[in-house]
C-alpha cells in the first residue's frame, strides 16, 4: 500500500517519527544502527501481489519524504544513523538516484543507495551502478539484499 496523503503531512511525519522511536528503543539496550533504508523494495507492491509487505514510493515520493520528514527527523535525533535510498533492484538506476539525489536537500540527508541482486541479469552494472557512481561519486552503492532458494 501507500502512505495516506503526501510528504510533510501528519501521516508522513508519524512514519518518520516511527523510525526514530525504533532507533530510540534499541538504543536503550545499547544497540545502534549504522544505517536504515527509507523502504525495502518500494516498487514491489506495484509489480507483485498487493499483500507484499512494503510501502509504495516512487522516486519522487521517496525524495519528498526524505526532504520533508525522514531526513529532518533523523537530523534532529541523537542517532548518527545513515540513510539509504532505493533498496530495490538496480534496474531502477540511475533514474532513482537522479530523482532523489539531484535535490540538494535530499542529497545532504542521504549517505548512499541500496540495491538488490534479483534482476541483475537484466541490466549490466555499467548501465546502472557505474552510471550512478559517475553521477553521484560522494554517495556509496551497497548491496542490501540477496538470497536464493
UniProtKB/TrEMBL annotation:
<comment type="similarity">
    <text>Belongs to the glycosyl hydrolase 30 family.</text>
</comment>
<dbReference type="InterPro" id="IPR033453">
    <property type="entry name" value="Glyco_hydro_30_TIM-barrel"/>
</dbReference>
<dbReference type="GO" id="GO:0006680">
    <property type="term" value="P:glucosylceramide catabolic process"/>
</dbReference>
<protein>
    <recommendedName>
        <fullName>Glucosylceramidase</fullName>
        <ecNumber>3.2.1.45</ecNumber>
    </recommendedName>
</protein>
<feature type="domain" description="Glycosyl hydrolase family 30 TIM-barrel">
    <location>
        <begin position="1"/>
        <end position="149"/>
    </location>
</feature>
<keyword id="KW-0326">Glycosidase</keyword>
<keyword id="KW-0443">Lipid metabolism</keyword>
<comment type="pathway">
    <text>Steroid metabolism; cholesterol metabolism.</text>
</comment>
<dbReference type="GO" id="GO:0004348">
    <property type="term" value="F:glucosylceramidase activity"/>
</dbReference>
<dbReference type="InterPro" id="IPR017853">
    <property type="entry name" value="GH"/>
</dbReference>
<dbReference type="GO" id="GO:0008203">
    <property type="term" value="P:cholesterol metabolic process"/>
</dbReference>
<dbReference type="GO" id="GO:0050295">
    <property type="term" value="F:steryl-beta-glucosidase activity"/>
</dbReference>
<keyword id="KW-0378">Hydrolase</keyword>
<keyword id="KW-0732">Signal</keyword>
<dbReference type="Pfam" id="PF02055">
    <property type="entry name" value="Glyco_hydro_30"/>
</dbReference>
<dbReference type="InterPro" id="IPR001139">
    <property type="entry name" value="Glyco_hydro_30"/>
</dbReference>
<dbReference type="GO" id="GO:0004336">
    <property type="term" value="F:galactosylceramidase activity"/>
</dbReference>
<keyword id="KW-0746">Sphingolipid metabolism</keyword>
<dbReference type="GO" id="GO:0005765">
    <property type="term" value="C:lysosomal membrane"/>
</dbReference>
Amino acid at each position: 500500500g501507500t502512505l495516506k496523503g503526501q510528504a510533510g503531512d501528519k501521516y508522513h511525519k508519524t512514519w518518520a517519527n516511527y523510525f526514530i522511536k525504533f532507533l530510540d528503543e534499541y538504543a536503550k539496550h545499547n544497540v545502534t544502527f549504522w544505517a536504515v533504508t527509507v523502504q525495502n523494495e518500494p516498487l514491489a507492491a506495484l509489480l507483485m501481489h498487493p499483500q507484499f509487505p512494503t510501502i509504495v514510493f516512487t522516486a519522487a515520493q521517496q525524495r519528498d519524504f526524505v526532504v520533508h520528514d525522514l531526513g529532518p527527523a533523523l537530523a534532529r535525533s541523537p542517532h548518527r544513523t545513515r540513510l539509504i535510498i532505493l533498496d530495490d533492484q538496480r534496474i531502477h538506476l540511475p533514474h532513482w538516484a537522479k530523482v532523489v539525489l539531484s535535490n540538494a536537500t535530499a542529497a545532504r540527508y542521504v549517505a548512499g543507495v541500496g540495491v538488490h541482486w534479483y534482476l541483475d541479469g537484466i541490466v549490466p552494472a555499467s548501465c546502472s551502478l557505474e552510471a550512478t557512481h559517475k553521477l553521484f561519486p560522494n554517495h556509496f552503492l551497497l548491496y542490501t539484499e540477496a538470497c536464493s532458494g
